[in-house]
Specification:
With about 250 residues, this protein is mostly helical. It has helices at about 1-10, 20-40, 45-65, 70-85, 90-95, 100-125, 140-155, 160-185, 190-215, 220-245. Helix content is about 75%, strand content about 0%.
Length: about 250
């Protein structure tokens, strides 16, 4: 909690870009949802332990933004990834969320935060992740991180239908696991290279699912009904006016 307060306080400085400041504040709000569940005495020890680990990992990734080695561009990208990824924490912490959905959500948050932090700490630039696993021509870790964060943004969007949301949760979990392996400094070069190559195919598949989810997002029926009523009213009003003026 102290680290989060420090990060938010630091972000309030005039040297912080407005979008970065907002991203840090929103990430802290997402983490607050997890902290509430952690502090709830009714929370199971297993879930409390898992959430505590996730919160520490996300907080650690956010701390990277204060490093002088991180370029402004890389800092903005890191904050964007963390903000979008941590946005699924309130959904994961909701008691109504199914366990089979909660587990991959939390795993994705932890792995993507780890990958974001590792890719920046190794090179200090948004392109540094290209050196993580070789694999010339394959997507970089930074590009896969951005794609994964886009999925997380769709997952937490209430307009995304359950079927598309559940599929995105599954595919994003696969991407996040590959991201962790591709950016893990403890893994061998061969393991990291293999994980990066797999990211190519999996990311392409996930992008197709993102398009499907975005096109399937529901529009509130009430809003459509109101719009139709307004249009109908306007039409009748328009057709009445000529008669009243001529009468």
């Amino acid at each position: 909690m102290e680290t989060l307060i420090t990060l938010v306080t630091t972000a309030a400085g005039p040297e912080t870009r407005p979008q970065d400041r907002q991203g840090i504040v929103e990430s802290a709000e997402h983490l607050a949802a997890a902290l509430t569940v952690i502090n709830d005495p009714q929370t199971s020890p297993e879930l409390r332990e898992e959430l505590t680990s996730v919160v520490k990992q996300v907080t650690s990734a956010l701390k990277t933004v204060s490093s002088p080695k991180t370029s402004p561009e890389a800092r903005s990208m890191l904050i964007l990834v963390v903000r979008r990824t941590s946005a699924t924490l309130p959904l994961a912490c909701d008691h109504r969320t199914r366990q089979e959905l909660r587990e991959p959500l939390l795993g994705t948050v932890a792995d993507m935060s780890f990958a974001a932090e590792s890719s920046e700490s190794e090179g200090g630039s948004s392109d540094a992740s290209e050196t993580l696993a070789g694999g010339g021509g394959t997507p970089t870790v930074s590009k896969a991180l951005f794609a994964g964060s886009t999925s997380n943004a769709l997952i937490q969007d209430a307009r995304t239908p359950p079927e598309q949301r559940d599929q995105l949760v599954k595919s994003t979990r696969q991407i996040s696991a590959l991201l962790r392996k591709a950016s893990d400094p403890r893994a061998s070069q061969e393991e990291r290279s293999e994980a990066t190559k797999k990211l190519d195919e999996e990311t392409a598949r996930m992008k197709d699912e993102q398009e499907e989810a975005a096109s399937a997002q529901k529009r509130p029926a009430e809003s459509l009904g109101k719009a139709a009523a307004v249009c109908t009213s306007a039409i009748f009003e328009t057709t009445r006016k000529p008669r009243s003026l001529g009468g």
